[in-house]
Amino acid sequence: MKKINSLILFSGGLDSILAVKILQNQGIKTTGITFKSYFFNAEQAKKSAKNLGIKSKIIDISKEHLKIIKSPKYGYGKTMNPCIDCRILMLKKAKKMMKKQNFDFVATGEVLGERPMTQNKKALDLVEKKSCLTNYLLRPLSAKLLKPTIPEKKGLINRKGLLDISGRSRKKQIALAKKWKIKDYPTPAGGCILTDPEFSKRLKKLLEIFPKCNGNDIELLKLGRHFWHNKTKIIVGRNDEENKKIKKLAKSRDILIEMKNYPGPLTLIRNYQGVKFKKLSSLNSLKKAKKLTQYYSTKARQKKDIRFKIWLKN
């Protein structure tokens, strides 16, 4: 008898872990497909896949994801999260892999009604259609509340072994985790930094001023204290670890500032309007950056004898 093979979108969260277990309980082989971008990583998925004993292919969608964020067809959620567009992108990738490697169907850990933007019935139908997975996209946790897929109709999956979970309560999932002795799983907050209001505020401002931003600009958004002076960004490190990361991310034409005679932050100045260093050095942005560098050093804040090291990244 032919072994049934499924490809599952695998984040490593409880819902995707349970979806894998449901399929494994029916003797179906599961392979994960995990995505990473500038805004989320694959570390939890790696850990959970190892615990479950499944393989998971990791695909970097950073550049495609950033392009979507700049102009999402289906809009944003509460912050800068274009979840529907993101889901379609992931499922399109899964569809290609399914076809290329002869998987029988694609599965996800989605729960009907769990997330208001992406997991209502209309959104679930939309992403299934736009990803070209109509009738081949199984949601094991809510399958009994949705129309049967072709694999179910063909008898590849026993529909009786699927579930009818819906809504935002996690009680049923937690009960299943206890029943199946699943102990190591993350909280349901999600690993996508786009749902963080403060980060989204920074990103929105950056896109308004410099819509051509790239991955380096995004990585800097995750670090330090951020200030704008017209179209010039000033980033002040909060600790030694951040100082090192900021220095590593500095690009050609960035200005770096630190104090010579007191411990304190590394500050980066990046202008988004093509102003040359000589001109910038006479502007208020540099003066402001020096003041901020001193202010965020508790030992130097009230001192008058500050000497700065200022250099241009080559």
Mean pLDDT: 95
Distance between the termini: 63 Å
How would you write the strand order of the largest sheet? 3-2-1-4-5
Output the number of helix runs.
12
What spatial form do the alpha-carbon principal axes imply?
A: elongated
Structural class: alpha/beta
Strand content: 15-25%
What's the SSE blueprint?
Blueprint: E1 5-9, H1 14-24, E2 29-36, H2 43-52, E3 56-60, H3 62-70, H4 83-101, E4 105-107, H5 121-130, E5 137-138, H6 150-153, H7 171-179, H8 197-209, H9 215-221, E6 225-229, E7 232-236, H10 240-249, E8 255-259, E9 267-271, H11 277-280, H12 284-295, E10 308-312
Parallel strand pairs: 1-2, 1-4, 2-3, 4-5
Antiparallel strand pairs: 6-7, 7-9, 8-9, 8-10
Detailed description of the structure:
This protein is α/β, with parallel strands linked by helices and 314 residues long. It has two domains: 175 residues, Rossmann fold, CATH 3.40.50.620; 90 residues, no CATH class. 38% of the residues lie in helices and 15% in strands. It is built from twelve helices and ten strands. The strands form two sheets. It has a five-stranded parallel beta sheet with strand order 3-2-1-4-5, sandwiched between helices. The longest helix is centred in the first third of the chain and has 19 residues. It is elongated, with a radius of gyration of 24 Å. The mean pLDDT is 95.
Features:
Rossmann fold, alpha/beta, elongated, 314 residues, single chain
